[in-house]
Amino acid sequence: MRSHRKILMHFLYSSFLRNATSSSLRSTYPQSQLLPFQHGWWQEDIATDKISIEPFDAPGTTIHAPYDRTYPAEEYDNKDLEDNCALMYLNEATLLHNIRIRYMKNQIYTYTANILIAVNPYYGIPDLYSSGTIKKYQGKSLGVLPPHVFAIADKAFRDMKVTKHSQSIVVSGESGAGKTESTKYILKYLCESWGSRAGDIEQRILECNPLLEAFGNAKTVRNNNSSRFGKFIEIHFDGKNVVAGGYISHYLLEKSRIVTQGPDERNYHIFFRLCAGAPEELRKQLRLGSPDSFNYMNQGCTQYFCGRESLKTLSDSRKSKQYLKSGSLHDTVLDDVRDFKLIDDAMAHLRVDQSTRMSIYALVAAVLHLGNIGFEENHEDTKGGCMVSSASEGNLSVAATLLAVDKDELKDSLISRVMQTTKGGVKGTVIKVPLKVYEAQNARDALAKSVYSRMFDYIVLLVNQAIPFKSTVNFIGLLDIAGFEYFQVNSFEQSASTTVMRNCNSSSMREFSKSFFSWRKKAKITVKNVEMGSFYERNFDIASGTNLYEKEGLNVKKITWTDNQDCIELIEMKISGIFDLLDEESKLPTPKYDHFSMEVHNRNKNHFRLSFPRKSKLKSHRDVRDEEGFLIRHFAGAVCYHTKQFIDKNNDALHASLEFLIKDSKNPLLQKLYEGMQVSSGKLNFSSVGSKFRSQLRVLMEKLKSTGTNFVRCIKPNLKMVDHLFEGSQILSQLECSGMHSVLDLMQQGFPSRTLFADLYNMYKKYLPPELSRLDPRLFCKALFKALGLSDKDFKFGLTKVFFRPGKFAEFDEIMKSDPENLAKLIAKVKRWLICSRWKKAQWCTLSVIKLKNKILFRQQQIVMIQKTIRMWKTVREFRPKFQTVTKMKSLQAQLKLMEQIAGQLKKDKDQALNKVQEMVKSLELNIQKIRFTKMSRLEMEQAHALMMKTMDTQLVDIKKMLEKQKNREEQERLKKIQEEMERERKKKEEEERKRKQEEEERKLKSEMEARRKKEEDERKKREVEETKRKAEIDLHLAKDAEENKRRQQVLDQEHRDRELALRLAAEDEVEDIVVPQLQRSEAVRAQRQELLAKKYDLTKWKYAELRDAINTSCDLEMLEACREEFHRRLKVYHSWKVKNKKQNDSKKDERAPETITQNSNYTVSKQNDKGSDVQRFFHIPFARPADEYRDGSERRQGMWYAHFDGHWIARQMELYPDKQPVLLLAGIDDMQMCELSIEETGLAKKKGAEMLGKDFEDVWKKHGGAEYLKKHAKRVSSKFLQKRLGLL
């Protein structure tokens, strides 16, 4: 296969055949004769099955190529076409050659119908993805501009916008073909074009890719940044077609890469970036070293990707031996040192807090340290178990610390597992089974894979939470999947993940085939290109249902395509499908891979897609036994799968010991990752890897089927991953695997080449003699095809176009441009066909002339009757209009009389109006005389009548307006008086209604306040009864405490005296002091202290200023309430001390509140809940100053005390007294002068008539300067209600 492909490619590149090898041409030459071509000679031998070719560019070289691999080429070598459908010859060779020419010209994109082929350039093409390029492609149909991935993205957006239906873009290709970059640029186009108004959602969507690449991409031998998982990115749009958010679904993460890698390959990027770019403090905290110090990283390549700047900052302690020997890896996109900072910033921008990021890094490091845990046989264990090697104890300890689990439990769970039998009781008997070395290693690897895969799921969840969408109408989905790839050995990783990927490709190919032919049969926009003799027409977009073939009247049979549904069913079918058989085998007590392989063959006998490995084309596969594997013929080719490790790797579940260990972890992130995990209860209930992959694929395919599909096929130009190197064999294989060969085969069944009659005529006009060049284009085409003897199967005539089978238009073109002698014969045939056609037309014309003579005689008899009828009609036509017009004129006299009557009713300008009426009468008489005695046409008479009517109508309207104005003036004066009277009455009623509503509202509020007061009064009475009982109990308890305290005080006094005596004696005798132990406090004191310690906030040591600042600035409601309670408690203590220590003759002039209120504070008030902490209540009560308290009669004066409570505490206080200035107090400014009691302690709510409306309080407050006082001290106010009113919150 390999050597044959090289020869074929050499032939395809060096010497494309210039002419079709039709049998009609070959028959004119003898056998073994060399036939000349433009770029090569070919020698035909009927006895052989090959063609011998000697190319011009390599004289003396002969290439022997099979007939079925030899294709006709295009006429011009260096001409490239943007759409492969425009090629004259639709085959693999021309497709490959066209892509090669465009690739060498840095034109990496090419269309094949509505599929975009993208060749990875492996270097940055200037201005290819700039913002200017994005704007250029916005709103442009396919084909208007050169092929580009932006055009596919724009087409998907326009289809979604027009059809109101979600769209999908399937990006596929081999590893290193540029799928990830293409997906990035599609995301960039959609977000920059229609996501700029979505805020930072656009940036977060673009930043999710680097984060996912860090945890899901790795270096392989084929790609430095290979995606080892599939993802389906949904960009959601709202009703205005603006980006509203996104959602990412991921599939098929390659878990095996976490624990093992091939030569020259690396583990996932995050491991290397953490080792290379983590800060030194974090590196020491996670116990990180160089890559070759970890078993999970040193199996393959241990070099970093570094740029010039990163090389300067990378210390030697971070470098591996391979790095120090060979240096760093280089890539234009990757830099491990720089990229660690990028992913950390990306997580921060995606709103991942610092602690979560540190937990993620800790789990990544834990996976690395798990890999360094080694095992050895335990010779002391009689059951053949193993133990952790002594050299791995350090890594075991670090891994346990990072996972937040006990070290001994981790060790025990790795070297043994727990089994639970169903016998021996309800819960069964627990048996501890030691593990062998290889089993312990598998358990360790399973734990590492489980932790990493769940962490990857969590990162995808974080990304989705950062790009939410509140409302969505449609979405555009980007599917990034791996294409069909060839491997020498395909194990479970390829069968489970790669098989599902290939299955997805097969399913998408099936959907593409359907959508392709719906596209081929529907035309919306056509573009024609006539250049250098290569004429074609192609369709660019899907129409709303117009069928081009039906529109042109072509009776074309239904076109069919290859359906690979049987291959999909072989893998996914119930009972006999490969995945179901694998799950069934895994549930057996002793599963065996050879039994599974034979079950696959036995259950699917005679299935076309399934075969034995010995039937493979590769020798290495033919050595595989039947029970060791199977061969599947996929859409792109046959693949041999080795089943030796299928069963072990189909089950990556942790055994019970590790599951219990993880559930007991104290790591918050790890607990979140395994939240809801059910401990496995046996083989029959386990969930296999294959079933998970299959369910993911099913969901994915349902999404694809529910959306419109677009395709981007990425091509890898060479295996060396360098620019401007085009390996034909590699690329042709990818084109075949991606379905391009099938697309060409499908197109062969239709009429891909078509042209207008006029355009075809203009192409060959210069080759025709003058007598033929003047023909009608359609007639010329018809005559030409008949003269050439072309089969009706090779072309079809439509209404405006002629349609050709694939390649037939080129064959026709070659015939027309052949030697002059052949062209002269063709012209002679055309002339003969035209003569025969014209003779038939002459016979038809003779018969037509005879029929015409008979018609003339019949018409002559009818002419006489027509003439007499016309004379009569002319006379009537001349006089009837005059009679009718005069009658109409006389009918206008009634209107003149009406005008005269109206004019007589005028009081002002009456004479002027009557004069105008008389003038109209004279004009009417003159017009009647003119019509009677003057020759006028019908139109002129109608115009005179219309003019007269118009003039009279105008005069009548003017007179009516004058009369109407006269009446309006009189009516307006009368209405004005009525309106003024009604307005006065209306305002009076409105004012009465407003007052009534206001009084009704005030009555309602007062009744509500009274009802609330009564309710509070009832509650207070109930509380008083309870408090009376509780007080009696407290008094009894206090009496006991007092007695106990008295006794303790006596003992304390005695101890104090003893201590003093001992101190004097010690001083006299010069001995050391004697320590006397403290006396233990009472139970009440200890309970009080415990209550203070139990509070959330201890504010006893806070200063007054700190409390005030906390009340004014804190947003914590609990903190705020605690500060208020402490503040008012201190005020109570202060005022209590002040009252206790006041002068004996001190008057009551400094009272903070009326005596009736302060008296209530002596009563115990039960603590209220904070449900009404934000309720605003207002009170007012009368009070008398001490100087007026004992006055009699009219001399006694009384004031009013007002209070506004914000929740439980007072916010504003006001005192109004006759002949005194109003006293205004605000909480936060005048706290020392204000009432410190809570609303429950004042008892105001219990006083009938004390509560007032807030409106009335505000009126009194503003009246006495409260608004100015509040505004003056706005920044110091502590009440949240007043702060909101002032706009401070």
Structural account:
With 1289 residues, this protein is of the alpha+beta class. Helices cover 52% and strands 12% of the residues. It has 45 helices and 30 strands. It has a seven-stranded mixed sheet with strand order 5-6-22-7-16-10-11, with helices on both faces. Strands 29-28-27-26-30 form a five-stranded antiparallel sheet. Strand 8 and strand 9 (226-227) form a beta hairpin. It is flat and about 165 Å long. The two termini are 79 Å apart.
Defining traits:
single chain; 1289 residues; alpha+beta; 5-stranded antiparallel beta sheet; 52% helix; disordered N terminus
Question: What would you say about this model in short?
Answer:
By secondary structure, the protein is of the alpha+beta class. It has 45 helices and 30 strands. It is flat, with a radius of gyration of 50 Å.
Low-confidence stretches: 1-47, 516-546, 1163-1167
Rounded mean pLDDT is 78
Q: Helical region count?
A: 45
Number of strands: 30
Largest sheet: 7 strands, mixed
CA(first)-CA(last) distance: 79 Å
Tell me the helix content. 40-55%
Overall geometry? flat
Strand order of the largest sheet: 5-6-22-7-16-10-11
Radius of gyration: 50 Å
Strand-pairing-aware structural class: alpha+beta
Proportion of residues in extended strands? 5-15%
